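Why do we bother with holo predictions? Because pocket geometry can differ from the apo form. Keep that in mind while you read this record for copper (II) ion.
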Amino acid sequence: MRKMSIIPALALALALASAPAARAHTLWVNAHDSFNHPPGHVMVSLGFGHRLPLDDLLTGDFGVIRLATYELVEPSGKKVPLPMPDYARNPRPPVDGLVVERGDVGVTKVQFTPESPVGAYVLNVEALSSYLNQYVNDKGKTVFSQKPLDQVKDARDVIFAWKYYAYAKAVFSYKEPGVPKPLGHDLEINPLVDVSTLKAGDLLPLEVTFLGKPLTIEGTDVHYLYATSNTFGGPDKFMLASWVIGGRAQFRLPSAGQWVFSIYLQRDVDKHPALADLKGKARQVYYVASLTVDVKP
Ligand SMILES: [Cu+2]
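The structure, written out:
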C-alpha cells in the first residue's frame, strides 16, 4: 500500500521515472537530422513523458523537470552549451473545453557549416538532482519535502528519503561514422558501435556503467535495460528488455525509427560506500538514464 501512495505523489512532485511500470515521466532527448538543404542541420528537443518523440511540456500536471546541463558534445569532446528551456506555464482559459498552452521543450537548431567537425556527436542532458522525502511530522501530519533529510527538523517517522539523478543522451553522426566516448554520468548507456548506419534487423550492443564501472548482476539484483520506439512498442505501451550482465546489454532492433533505451536504478545509501557522502541526507538514491538513436529504414 505504501508504494501506491508514493508513486502518484512523486509523479506530481518531481516526475522521477522510478520504474517503467510506474506512471512517472521519463526524460529523453531527440536529435532529428535534416539533410534536404546541404550541409544540413539537426533539430534538438527534449522528450518528457512516455510517448516518443514528444509527449509533455517540462512543467505539467503529471511531471516537472529542471535541467542542470543541456549541451552538444563535439566529436573531439568539446562542449557547446545549448540555450536552457523556459519552464514557465502559459495556459489560456479553456475554449470549447480545450486548454491551449504554449510551451518550451528546448527546441534548438544545430546548423552544420563547411567548418563543422565530422564524426559522432552526443547531446548531453543532465537534470537538476534533487532531494525528495515524505515523512510524518511531529504533529502527526504526512508531508513532502525537497530538503535533504538532515535539514528536516520536524520528522517523527520518515516514509522515504530519496535523492534522484536523471541523465539523457542522444547520439548522431555528421559525415563520418564514430563511437562517442562516455561522458562520465553516474549511470550511463553507451553504444559500442557506430549508430549512424544502424538499420532494422541489426544487433546493437550497448554498455551500461554505474559510477564508472560496468553494471552487472549483484546477488539477486538483476538489472534490465529497456528499449522502446515510436514504431515498435511505444504505440502499444510496451518495451523490450535486455539483461545487463558485465556491463553489456544488446537488442536486435525490429524496426526503423526513433529508439530510446532507458534504465532505472535504486540504491540504499548505507549499503554502498560510494554513496557515503549522502549519509544522513538521503536513504536511497534513484538514477535514471536514457539514450536515443535513430534507426534507418
Ligand atoms: Cu508520466
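Helices lie at 2-13.
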